[in-house]
Amino acid sequence: MDDGQPKADSGMEKQPEMIVSPSAKPRLSETLSKKPVVLLIVTLFAAIGCYLIFRSFAAGPVMTYTWDTNAAWNTGVATDVQTANNVVTLASTTPVTLPGTNLALHHPAHASSTNLSNTKVNLLARYVNDNNLSTRWGSKYSDPQWIYIDLGKTYAIGEVKLNWERAYGKAYKIQTSNDAKSWTTIYSTSTGDGNTDDLTNLNGQGRYVRMYGTKRGTQWGYSLYEMAIYGKTASASTLRSIPTYVPSGSLTLTYAASADVQWSGIALLADIPSGTSMTYQLRTSEDKTTWSAWATDITKVARSKYIQIQTSLATSDATKTPVLHSIALTYIPPTITPPSMPTVRLGASPASITSGSSSTLTWSSTNADSCMASGAWSGAKATSGNESTGVLTATSAYILNCTGTGGMATANTTVTVTTPSGTSVLPKPPAQYTKLVFDDAFAGTKLDTTKWNTFMGDNGGRWGDNGQLPSPYSEVGNSNEFNAEYGNPNQITVNNGLTLNTQRDNTFSKLGYSWASGYATTAGKFSFDHGYFQVGAQIPDSTTGGWFTIWFLGGSNEMDLDESGFLGCGNSVVNQCIASNMNNGDSQKFYNAGIDLSKGYHAYGIDYQPGKSVTIYLDGKPVTNFTKNVPTGKYFIILTNTMATSKASGWHTTVSSSAPSPIPFKVSEAQVWQ
């Protein structure tokens, strides 16, 4: 009898729970596939105390239960049942996920930042949930940073597992959200110690799950090999304790997967009293409109998004009714194809040039969203294009990193620069200067001491820190001021080019010097009262206190062509900045070259017209001009490679424990034209 209500257990002849097959004879069987699968248990009952409503039909009607989650398979608890036109729809609450299912795997990941400065590895957000411990996400070196994963739908969250790289979060939160805007914290710590954090017994829900880091455990950023997310689990006894519905006649159930899957197994859990029977058949569809033929073997049905199961119950004893508790389906999850890896090509034409010429860089990429240049060029680049190298005086290497959703690809090319015998490596001077009055290409292995001194001083002799530094040592700034170094001739080498090194040295630590550097001047040997000076040089990296200078003394005021390490162009572009100063009441001027000048040789020039103007040049092009209180007089040349102390903080980078040693300042040639 079908009176529209669940059957009470007290009025039924109880039999052991059975897994039934299409056979009419009750038996204990299980038709689940032996393949690795994801198990879905779809329950056909309401929550405790819920009231199931259904309608009576004449002989032979089919009642259809439809549960289309259109997402990953989950077990839900029915909270409402509505009938219309013989279709019963079950509305699900927040789903209870099955144990062991990593909800984060291969879902979209979004991060506050990605450390693109590390060109040795790819640190994109998508690697945080690719189930590969040889890849990872890494952020920039600052607080706060975050990364979240879009699970595709709302889940009850019970566990989050974080597999940290050495750069871990000391203080961080786990948060959930339904819109990726408003976040609820479900876990927080300020004592993280790295390694693997398996955070269990969490109680939250949401479509988006975020790790929000507020304090790093190291000087580096936040870096995760893997972030796994698991739902809240329920035991089988809990699932089966909810009252069951006792159907009669036939019923058809439709299930939806998030994508086409290969269905691999089915089992029905039911009480089958003697004298009763239960059978089923299946069919599949791509659109719930066109269906395949009915079949009794699930392994024979086609790969599809929708599967429909039709059960038939029969009894020859009106006092006994079969009870269907649940249906268990298994399927092989869809294969997720990762995004295509980017490719990039970079070339130079011509690839070999003579000094003072230029080349054209051409590049193209596929599957890339952005590109970043490094080496002898820098900055963001389009995903394809061409660009001139500008005038080159030395061989230069160019690197291009292009990133996309599939990762990062790198290409590089080198422009070889040769200097024909007897020619200069420097560009031509301004047109009005035709006479070369000073030239040194630093040929051979010894410094020409008829042109250069190996100590700092003026026409009055060596600067020795008020007599505290013995000969042949010297200094640019007195001890315990802005300079961390003293001058040592041993830091000067010549090998078809001049190198002024600076390196850690405690010989005169009692005087406050912790570095020894190379100085070269023409004091007392050469000076000029007008004209164009230029030098080919590769400046040192100045991000850790380096302070190379090209400057001049002897006239009415000190003239500085360029001093590295100043912060006038911005703290993040120190190596792109040219800092020039006439020390005459006109302010120091800064020019951002737009490229990292420490990555290759460049030509630095100064056009000195006493009392009229001073113009600064880079690679043969004017970049800065002074016209107020222009100095006068005769000047000698000074080349120094120094280090700034902490007293220079605020306007210059300062020496740190991370500074490399030695740090070279390389010079290819120096000229004066009149």
Brief overview:
With 674 residues, the chain is an all-beta fold. 1% of the residues lie in helices and 44% in strands.
Please explain how this structure is put together:
- The chain is an all-beta fold and 674 residues long.
- The protein folds into four domains: 9-96 and 236-332, no CATH class; 129-224, Galactose-binding domain-like (Jelly Rolls, Sandwich); 343-418, Immunoglobulins (Immunoglobulin-like, Sandwich), CATH 2.60.40; 436-673, Sandwich (Jelly Rolls).
- The chain has one helix and 43 strands.
- The strands form eight sheets. Strands 26, 29, 30, 31, 32, 34, 39, 40, 41 and 43 form a ten-stranded mixed beta sheet that branches. Strands 1, 2, 3, 4, 5, 14, 15, 16 and 17 form a nine-stranded mixed beta sheet that branches. Strands 6, 7, 8, 9, 10, 11, 12 and 13 form an eight-stranded antiparallel beta sheet that branches.
- Strand 27 and strand 28 (461-462) form a beta hairpin.
β-strand number: 43
- The number of domains: 4
Mean pLDDT, nearest integer?
A: 77
Biggest beta sheet attributes: 10 strands, mixed
| Tally of individual helices | 1
CATH architecture identity of the largest domain: Sandwich
For the record, what CATH class of the largest domain applies? Mainly Beta
Any idea of the CATH topology of the largest domain? Jelly Rolls
Q: Helix amount, in percent?
A: under 10%
Helix/sheet category: mainly beta
Q: Topology of this protein?
A:
Elements: E1 17-20, E2 38-43, E3 62-67, E4 78-84, E5 87-92, E6 109-111, E7 137-138, E8 145-164, E9 169-177, E10 184-189, E11 196-199, E12 204-216, E13 223-231, H1 236-240, E14 250-271, E15 276-285, E16 304-315, E17 323-332, E18 343-349, E19 352-354, E20 360-366, E21 370-375, E22 379-381, E23 385-388, E24 396-404, E25 407-418, E26 436-440, E27 457-458, E28 461-462, E29 485-487, E30 492-494, E31 498-504, E32 515-517, E33 519-521, E34 531-538, E35 546-553, E36 559-563, E37 577-580, E38 589-592, E39 602-609, E40 613-618, E41 621-626, E42 636-643, E43 663-673
Parallel strand pairs: 3-5, 3-14, 19-25, 29-32
Antiparallel strand pairs: 1-14, 2-17, 4-5, 6-8, 7-13, 8-11, 8-12, 8-13, 9-10, 9-12, 14-16, 14-17, 15-16, 18-20, 20-23, 21-22, 21-24, 24-25, 26-43, 27-28, 30-31, 31-32, 31-43, 33-42, 34-39, 34-43, 35-36, 35-42, 37-38, 39-40, 40-41
